[in-house]
Amino acid sequence: MTRSNEPPRASQGPGPARSLGVAAVDPVPICREGLSAIVQRTPGLHWAGGVGTPHSALQLAEQVRPDVILIDSGLDPHGHLTKLLVHGDPAVLVIMLLREAHRNPVFLQSALVAGVHGALPRIAEPRRLVEAIRRTHLDRRYLDPALAQLTTAPRQALHQGEAAHRVRMPLSRREYQVLQLVADGLENAAIAKLLYLSVETVRTHVKSILRKLSARDRTHAVAIAFRNGILVAQPTDNTEAAERVSPTRTRVNQPGLAEHRAR
């Protein structure tokens, strides 16, 4: 991930407007590179970085404070990441890039309730992505025309579906990051190093996670989290991303934060 020389947050006051910092959370490196290229060639925008996992997305948001964060819906199917990002920085704008499997009224409504400000298909043309970023920044709400029909479902059906789709998030922002790294197989010392915490602080978070999830140990906590939708399996790429970037499918296992630090 390349580092931008632009300021971390666009100016909202009088005077010349600064460019908007745009970051992306997508598990596929070539997709992040494509988004970076689109942003960097667009006047008024600058690239604030790209990461491939939820825990590194939270770190990027804390350290870089981008104006806009693009999120692949496969990494946030229950809106947990969106909620944590918006709660941590109410000024940040979250735009969801919807995979084909998520282009339905229930998912879209749930995403909006979680705090998503804009949404468009993950396979949208570059010009539509740029329009979405600009419109979301101006209006703090944008829905791509291709998704308009998803808002016409009966209200009762939407509410019922949303209730069924919603998954409770019992963990704090930091606990969620720690649990993600525990699921990746990291021990407390490695987690402390990645999150810039003391080992004792990590131990405290792990104890809190076990208590909140009623888990016997770390492995049990991870199993409970996956079973209850608190954690999600790393999404595999599918044909829609293949159409966008490559004639063959690409799978990424677990891109780490080293990419973010190498900016």
From TrEMBL:
CDD domains in alphabetical order: LuxR_C_like
A Pfam short name: GerE
Region (Disordered): 1-20, 237-263
Domain HTH luxR-type: from-to ranges: 164-229
Domain Response regulatory: from-to ranges: 21-137
InterPro entries according to UniProt: CheY-like_superfamily, Sig_transdc_resp-reg_C-effctor, Sig_transdc_resp-reg_receiver, Tscrpt_reg_LuxR_C, WalR-like
4-aspartylphosphate PTM positions: 72
Protein's name according to its UniProt entry: Response regulator transcription factor
Database matches in PROSITE patterns: HTH_LUXR_1, HTH_LUXR_2, RESPONSE_REGULATORY
Keyword terms, alphabetized: DNA-binding, Phosphoprotein
Organism: Amycolatopsis cynarae
Superkingdom: Bacteria
Keyword Phosphoprotein: yes
